[in-house]
Design a protein that fits this description.
Blueprint lengths: L4 E7 L15 E7 L7 E2 L2 E2 H14 L7 E6 L10 E5 L6 H10 L8 H15 L3 E7 L9 H10 L4 E8 L7 H9 L4 E4 L2 H13 L9 E7 L2 E2 L2 E7 L7 E4 L5 E3 L6 E7 L8 E3 L3
Parallel strand pairs: 2-5, 2-7, 7-8, 8-9
Antiparallel strand pairs: 1-10, 3-4, 5-6, 10-11, 10-14, 12-13, 12-15, 15-16
């Protein structure tokens, strides 16, 4: 029996009004995993060493006036679930502060994801500001917190943020709670297995900010009547726009495509003999 791939693409039309006023970009806030497991090795180097170098390089390529905050957890105490600290404030524009802080980190403790997110979200609430939060972690919650619930309640309270989560070297089957939190945070979950893929995922996360409108295209892939994990790439016809990518994780992917013509490629990620499907001039 031949396998059939059905791509469902829904376009939500957005009416965009040109604005002459240039608005200041909102902050990026990185929550960095400094738990003991970051001493784990990938290609002969510790995950902390790799992540620190890749984050530093990514930050160096951000616009000069980009505000970038840094929060670390697990870097001061081995068993303290409240070991979370702002190493750079949310209004920081000094990139060297980020690189110096990362260089000084010595992984040690636990993984309080929910508490870390709570501190960042409470800061946004107190400041009445918005931000793109990027959580970089090599593991799941280890302090009995519920990250997905924290994010859900914050959104219900009207706090404005987007949460992206990058799982770095996570084991198979350890992503369910992280997928939930990213979805509730109107962001994306990204898998990274090495330095190269981590750099690519950080690039995507820092580009898909809270300042960009929510997705106006919804993509859902089905094979033989069942939802499948698929990788989505959208290629702009205009040189003024950048390629957009997302992953369905056997669910629904939301992407924002600026006005204009795009080619959209959908490729099944699960073992399959189905070739990629491409829609042109969308």
């Amino acid at each position: 029996m031949k396998a059939h791939l059905l791509l469902i693409l829904i376009c939500f039309c957005l009416f965009l009004t040109a604005q002459d006023e240039k608005h200041e970009s909102s902050a990026l806030i990185l929550i960095y995993d400094a738990s003991g497991s970051m001493w784990g090795q990938i290609d002969g180097a510790s995950k902390n060493e790799i992540a620190s170098a890749v984050v530093t390089a990514t930050v160096a390529n951000l616009p000069q006036d980009q505000k970038i905050g840094l929060v670390a957890y697990g870097h001061r105490s081995k068993g303290d679930c409240k070991d979370v600290e702002f190493l750079a404030p949310t209004n920081n524009t000094d990139k060297s502060k980020i690189s110096a802080s990362l260089k000084a980190i010595k992984p040690l403790g636990k993984t309080p994801l929910a508490y870390s997110a709570t501190l960042v979200i409470d800061k946004l609430k107190a400041d009445k500001s918005k931000a793109t939060i990027i959580l970089l972690t090599d593991g799941i919650e280890s302090c009995d917190g519920n990250l997905c619930e924290v994010v859900r309640k914050a959104k219900e309270a009207g706090i404005e943020f987007k949460l992206h989560i990058i799982g770095f070297g996570l084991e198979d089957g350890a992503t369910e709670s992280l997928l939930c939190a990213a979805k509730e945070g109107e962001g994306e979950y990204f898998d990274a297995a090495d330095a190269s893929s981590l750099g690519a995922m950080l690039q995507r996360a820092t580009s898909a900010t809270v300042d960009i409108p929510n997705g106006n295209f919804t993509v859902f892939a089905i094979k033989n009547g069942k939802p499948i994990d698929a990788y989505i790439r959208a290629f702009p016809k205009s040189r003024d726009e950048k390629e957009v990518a997302a992953r369905t994780y056997a669910d629904t992917a939301h992407i924002y495509l600026a006005p204009g013509e795009w080619d959209i490629e959908v490729k099944p990620l699960e073992q399959s003999d189905v070739k990629a499907t491409t829609l042109t001039n969308v």
